[in-house]
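Subject: Sanity check before I submit

Could someone independently write out the structure tokens for this chain? I want to compare against mine line by line before I put it in a report. The sequence has 201 residues.
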Amino acid sequence: MFWLMNVYSDFSHSALKYLKNTEVNIQNLLIMAGNFNIQDRLLDPSFPYHLSISNDLLIIANSFNLNLLISINQVLTRYSDNANDSNLIINLMFLQCGSSKLDNHSIYPDWCPTSGHMPLTIMIPIVEKNVNSRKRSIIKDSKEKEQFIKDIITSIRNLDMSNLSDIPHLENTIDNFANIIDKVWVKNSKIINVTKHSKSW
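---
Independent answer below. Compare away.
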């Protein structure tokens, strides 16, 4: 199983500080994306300055085994409706290292949502995989089901419960009952192959 993490870090970089100072253990993180609110030449070659918070971001990404993705179309990701503010690259996407099929993403400035943050998209291929497994089952409303219930009732009636005076005797009785249930289950059930076409019950 793989995980996706969406991050919003405000202008005080609260989310990044939290991720840096907290031991967040997320296994198999595939993608981390979001608005990181960082202007830096490491993230945007057109920006002239470098900030230490960018180093923190890359260290955090590296701790999750993620690399910064380069978009197919090199465009800005945040467009301001205020003429006095600059348009920026602050929405970023990181991907699990070593992935050959997921090595870039696309940005869609034409979609232009009201927030001014351009959508970042990536195509994740999902391969259909049919894993068959085998298990014991009793068919719903079958004769085997009726017999299973009868056998259980008979086993409960015949269970020796004459000596339940202490915990060891009680545990021994419970173990005996569990063994009887297993035997009755094996007697009345049959092995079936479970596939994607099997019914949920």
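---
OP: Matches mine. For the report I'm noting this point. The chain has two domains: 3-121, 133-194.
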